[in-house]
Design goal:
The protein is of the alpha+beta class. Helices cover 17% and strands 21% of the residues. It has a single domain (7-251), classed as Glucose Permease (Domain IIA) (Distorted Sandwich), CATH 2.70.70.10. An eight-stranded mixed beta sheet has the order 1-2-4-11-8-7-6-9, with no helix packed on it. A two-stranded antiparallel sheet has the order 3-12. A two-stranded antiparallel sheet has the order 5-10.
Length: 262
C-alpha cells in the first residue's frame, strides 16, 4: 500500500534530518551521473536574468508589468547581449508574482519563490525530452498567470525510483502529438513554446522543474511557493542545473545570490 505524502510530511522529514522523500537520494545520485539530452538548443551567449524582488535588471520594476511590456523588456535585454536566450533562476523570490492570483484566502503572503528554471526564447521553439520517460500529465491550465499548456513526464532511476519533470507555458499545437501514457525517448520532441495569452499570459519561455513527488496535486503542482515554506518546496523541486550544463549551477541558483546580473 502506498501512502501519499503531504507538504507537512515533507517538512517533518526535513526537520528530522531525513531526505524529503524516500527516493530523493537515489534520484539525486542518478541525476548526478546522468547525461540528459538537450531540452532547448541555446546559443553561446545565453544570459542569466535577475528577476528577484527589487531588481532593475530589465530597466523597470517588474511588479504589475503587462505581458506586452514584460516581453519587450526581456527581448531588449537579450538583443543587447547578442542572444535569443535568457535564463530565469531557481529559488528566486520575485515581484512578478505580486498578485492575488498567487495568494490564498486568510493568508497575508503570496507565493513568490520560483521552484524551477525559466528559459526565455522565441515562441515556437522546440522542446525535447531530456530523459526517456512517460507522459504522466498533459493539461491546459488556462487561468491567468498559470502554466497554460503543460506536460509532466515521469522518469525512473535504474533502481526503479520514480520522479517527474514539468514543462510549462507551451503551445496547444505543439503538444498535439503527445498524449498521456505515451512513452517518450530522450531527445524526442514533446512540445513547442507558446505565446501569450495561450501560454498563461507570460512572455514566451519554458518553465522547467524537477519534482520528486507530486503530493497527489497533479496538474496543479505549484511552480512558485510561499516564502514561509520555501525550504520544503525547494527540497521537493531541487535545482535542475544538470539539465543546463552550459550555464553552471552557481549562476542558476538564486538561494546563494551569486547569479545576479545587475
Amino acid at each position: 500500500m502506498t501512502t501519499t505524502l503531504t507538504i507537512d510530511d515533507v517538512h517533518e522529514r526535513l526537520s528530522a534530518g531525513m531526505p524529503p522523500t524516500e527516493a530523493a537520494l537515489d534520484v539525486a545520485a542518478y541525476l548526478g551521473t546522468a547525461t540528459p539530452s538537450t531540452i532547448i538548443d541555446t546559443d553561446d551567449n545565453a544570459i542569466v536574468l535577475d528577476l528577484g524582488i527589487g531588481s532593475m535588471a530589465l530597466g523597470e520594476p517588474l511588479s504589475g508589468l503587462p505581458v506586452e511590456r514584460f516581453t519587450a523588456l526581456v527581448e531588449r535585454v537579450m538583443s543587447a547581449a547578442g542572444t535569443g536566450f535568457a535564463f530565469g533562476r531557481w529559488g528566486e523570490p520575485r515581484d512578478v508574482y505580486a498578485s492575488e492570483l498567487f495568494g490564498e484566502d486568510g493568508l497575508s503572503e503570496v507565493r513568490n519563490v520560483h521552484l524551477g528554471l525559466d528559459l526565455f526564447c522565441a515562441a515556437g521553439t522546440e522542446v525535447h525530452a531530456p530523459l526517456a520517460g512517460t507522459v504522466h500529465i498533459k493539461a491546459n491550465n488556462a487561468g491567468e498567470l498559470d502554466y497554460g499548456p503543460m506536460l509532466v513526464l515521469r522518469h525512473e532511476t535504474p533502481n526503479g525510483a520514480g520522479f517527474f519533470t514539468l514543462y510549462g507555458h507551451l503551445s496547444v499545437a505543439g503538444t498535439s502529438q503527445v498524449s498521456e501514457g505515451q512513452a517518450v525517448a530522450a531527445d524526442e520532441r514533446i512540445a513547442t513554446l507558446g505565446v501569450p495569452p495561450e501560454n498563461g499570459n507570460w512572455p514566451p519561455h519554458l518553465h522547467f522543474q524537477i519534482i520528486l513527488d507530486l503530493l497527489d496535486r497533479g496538474r496543479d503542482f505549484p511552480g512558485v511557493a510561499y516564502t514561509s515554506q520555501r525550504e520544503t518546496w525547494l527540497a521537493l523541486s531541487p535545482l535542475p542545473s544538470m539539465f543546463f550544463p552550459q550555464v553552471g549551477a552557481e549562476r542558476l541558483d538564486a538561494t546563494n545570490d551569486e547569479g545576479r546580473d545587475l
